[in-house]
Design goal:
This protein is α/β, with parallel strands linked by helices. It contains 13 helices and 19 strands. It starts with a helix and ends in a 7-residue tail after the last strand.
Amino acid sequence: MAFSRRQFLAATSVALAAPASKKLNFIFVLADDLGWADLPVNGGDFHETPEIDAFAKSAMRFSQAYAAAPICSPTRASIMTGKTPARLGITIWHEGALRKVTDRPMIPPASEDHLEHKEVTLAERLHDAGYRTMHIGKWHLGTTAHGPETQGFDSNVGGTHWGAPQTYFYPYKGTQGFGGEYRYVPGLGPGKPGDFLTDAFTDAAIKAVDSCGGDPFFLNLWFHNPHTPIECKPEHEAYFAKKLRPEFRHQNAKYAGMIRSLSENFGRLMQHLEKRGLAKNTVVVFFSDNGGYTEKNGGKTVTTNAPLRSGKGSLYEGGVRVPFLMRWPGVTKPGAVCDVPVISCDFFPTLLEIAGLPADAHDGVSIVPLLRDALAALPARDLFFHYPHYYPTTTPVSMVRSGDWKLLEFYEDGHLELYNLKTDPGEAQNLVASNPAKVRELHTKLDTWRKSVGARLPVKNPAVAKQ
């Protein structure tokens, strides 16, 4: 009798999984558009996140963690599969993949608007090994035909193909924005005026944890917060408006309020784990899908990623370096800081190794050695990024980070930029002219990598005059 690939993987997972009584639980909390510098633990100067700060003291903080893309859907796909977005063919968000760009100097390549079912996901592997798998919050990896339930999750609350809610306030639906499109958040059940979406998702997460009884679980709690629309509770806005001073880098009281709600709700979930006696047996990840959004919403600049350069959409550090905290009870040293560069593709092999399961083909590496010792080293590797699209912060671009060196190639005019992140983390000094040998080395690596993963490239637009 022939076995399908997924049947084989399921059998293998069950065979290799640890006994049920010894299985760890996994919670993956993903913020949306939370910038590296938005958190006080990374130097944020206006926002207040006491619950996240407290968790950081009990966990390991990674100072140089990267989202695999500067926008959401590709990074989310990399988390679920361990594969680089360029290999998956998912290089822009779902709605962006459906639009045609015809008025710019380059025509971006086609991007998949969903995660293919042929890809084996983290949820599938854990589900097949006996875990209860639950998704709550933003999905953005395809319509219902490619929703969480089709990708290994037993249940789904709020996961749709949309990248942002109509509003964060109950009933979370309407047509006021997004070109008049009607948007809603499914699965939350009854609510009341004034209810806030981030609270509602956390309520659902707590119920989901409790529903598992003694069964091991994998929970994706993927908040929309603090993605636009920039809305917060009135009491938070009033507090931060009163606190605001010209010397703060961050100047948006509503955005500060959104981050306050994010921290409160993360804290609520952590407190519930303690109350249930689950904290000692639950691995918790806190991450963001890309850098902070530096454009305006509601007439105000949303955030700044300073001292990092630029923000969401860009392959400068402000667009891809993100907050990352992880606690593996009994393994990670409380308050440890790891400076080794890691990337969202690494979660797939890492969490599977912690679970005692083999990983399928992937582009990441297991960071278990770092979790055991923040001063450990990973096998030498380069980190590659490919965003062949337009965004307010960028034109089509690819990038490689090799050690402390970083090379960007912009497709419109082919120009290159070289930075040394050790001496210049803000990417203020382009060193191309003074380091031709390093430029050639890194450009060769970047070109070789693009070919190896089948990266789709933009092409010149004959309908637009040369700039």
